[in-house]
Amino acid sequence: MTDLTPSDKALVPFVSVDHMMQLIHHIGIEPMLQGLAEYIETDFKRWQLFDKTPRIASHSKEGVIELMPTSDGEVYGFKYVNGHPKNTAEGLQTVTAFGLLADVSSGYPVLLSEMTMLTAMRTAATSALVARVLAPKGAATMAMIGNGAQSEFQTLAMKAVCGITEVRLYDTDPAATRKCAANLQGQGMNVVSCSSAEEAILGAQIITTCTADKQYATILTDNMVGAGVHINAIGGDCPGKTELAPAILNRADIFVEYPDQTRIEGEIQQLAPDHPVTEIWEVMTGKAQGRTSDKQITLFDSVGFAIEDFSALRFVRDRIAGTGFYHPLDLLADPDDPRDLFGMLQRARS
Ligand code: NAD
User: Strands 252-256 and 297-301: what pairing?
Assistant: First the structure.
């Protein structure tokens, strides 16, 4: 059904939140995280094919609304996403999203999808894919600092893709840690709730920071980070919104998605504009080195890039085929005579 036949070419498959959740359970959470990681890796390995631009951000006092477009020349995609750290206090999500794929040759949309769930899945899959390349060999324990909406997804992706067996949780709000620990019960991991960030990172080879605060925050200070760890920094993704002390950045080898965007939004906004970073696609294609020593601190300065959303939408498009997990949506006016749009309107009167 996603390869639309001429008779229904104007009906666009729409994946609602409900259908997305059914699709995720149909595939299985961990198999889907693994599948998304494969799709993202495939697209990272053909990085140079894509149109790339930093996302278009509209900032306000409370948050940001962003558009994230890209194309591989055959398919075009974009995501609408917001980031409003104050939302949770009002019972709203910090991050919500939806996205679209279109056929470049006709310009017709071929998929419209919710992307709040899908963003959590794709961000987690990207984190784990990168950690698989950069984390120390045999990493088994992760710290998860910030136990909000993304946290269980982040944790399960590290289990599914990297083989992590223990997670150590910390959040300034103990209710968030209780929620995260309860959700991770029975998922095949040892879950340890901690009362400080220092306690959470004890013995962890992978440290994920995934907090939300619209300021230069210091979730990790320099003295907390020992040699040899991999830091997966998720929450610093906006101008003026970072998580790590600059001294940690100066000790780490920094890996990014798309430097032009990360220098605006990532942890590296705190560094000189020419501070060396490695693009993660270059490590995946063998063009650049990843981890080179046991002592090295590797840092994935994640901000979320349009190609990851494109990969995730591609995955969904492929996987809804033959299922009932979408509504055909009457989104496009498509008169039989393409030049008779007005006639179509007139006929609708009757
Ligand atoms: P959320 O609001 O649901 O959760 C954030 C959690 O961080 C809350 O539980 C809060 O109590 C906790 N927190 C705040 N300050 C803290 C501190 N100093 N120490 C420990 N915990 C602290 O948000 P979410 O949807 O889980 O998103 C988390 C962050 O990830 C946001 O900043 C969001 O913008 C970002 N994000 C990044 C990407 C990406 O691709 N890099 C994708 C999605 C979300």
Answer: parallel
